[in-house]
Design brief:
Blueprint: E1 2-6, H1 10-18, E2 24-26, H2 29-35, H3 42-52, E3 57-60, H4 66-77, E4 83-88, H5 91-102, E5 107-112, H6 115-124, E6 128-131, H7 133-138, H8 143-156, E7 162-165, H9 171-180, E8 184-187, H10 189-194, H11 199-213
Parallel strand pairs: 1-2, 1-8, 2-3, 3-4, 4-5, 5-6, 6-7, 7-8
Helix pairs in contact: 1-3, 4-5, 8-9
Length: 222
């Protein structure tokens, strides 16, 4: 399973990439707007992200019409070869997905909340389908069940659209998505950091180092 960071923060992206575990980035208008302070502008910010990350970088359209989405997608794609265009899961979005597939522009169908939606965006040609599991959990539905259903149906019919588990809130979401077989998990940097946390690792390392300090320093020459 690939790990994407769900952020537009340059410091977070640089740190995550330095760990060797980041395969791509997802953004949305909310995340982008948080970073456009002072003299920053959209193109400069995106260019920095594209320079740091070799893998896919999802950038979202803001138009509601298919024609507007297609026009935006073509402008976004000019920013870099690894740009993936996020398209909303709407009927207009389906129209845009179809055309962008024909134009060989990779897409990420965002805000998927049902199996039927996941089927429709796949049939329209989406490269990625992004079920929002955390937001389903928020309304007392089990978001992970949706991931499981999509995986089963996509496998049943040999559908090539990749499942991108989104709206991840904690490490358990990542673990369960991996067990089910999601192709990608995109997560905030805070969740990404927690994937490496375990009290027994900290406890063991402390004990090793404490024991090492007890050794006669004369025996440590090498």
């Amino acid at each position: 399973m690939k790990f994407f960071l769900d952020t537009a923060n340059i410091a977070e992206i640089e740190e995550g990439v330095s760990w060797g575990c980041v395969d791509g980035i997802t953004t949305n208008p909310t995340l982008i707007s948080k970073e456009l302070a002072g003299n920053a502008n959209f193109k400069t910010l995106v260019k920095k992200i594209l320079d740091i990350v070799d893998g896919p970088v999802s950038l979202e359209v803001t138009s509601l019409s298919a024609d507007g989405m297609i026009e935006e997608a073509n402008r976004l794609k000019k920013l870099g070869n690894n740009v993936v265009v996020k398209i909303p899961t709407t009927i207009e979005g389906l129209k845009a997905l179809k055309v962008l597939k024909e134009q060989k522009i990779e897409t990420n169908a965002t805000l998927v909340f049902s199996l039927n939606q996941a089927l429709m965006v796949a049939k329209a040609g989406a490269t990625y389908a992004s079920p929002f599991i955390g937001r389903l959990d928020d309304i007392s539905e089990d978001g992970m069940n949706l991931i499981e259903d999509i995986r089963e149906v996509y496998d049943n019919y040999g559908i090539e659209t990749k499942i991108l588990a989104a709206s991840i809130r904690h490490p358990v979401h990542v673990r369960d998505a991996a067990l089910i077989g999601a192709d990608v998990a995109t997560m905030p940097f805070d969740v990404f950091k927690k994937l490496m946390n375990h009290p027994k690792t900290d406890e063991g390392l402390k004990r090793f180092l404490d024991d090492w300090k007890k050794i006669d320093k004369k025996k440590l020459m090498f």
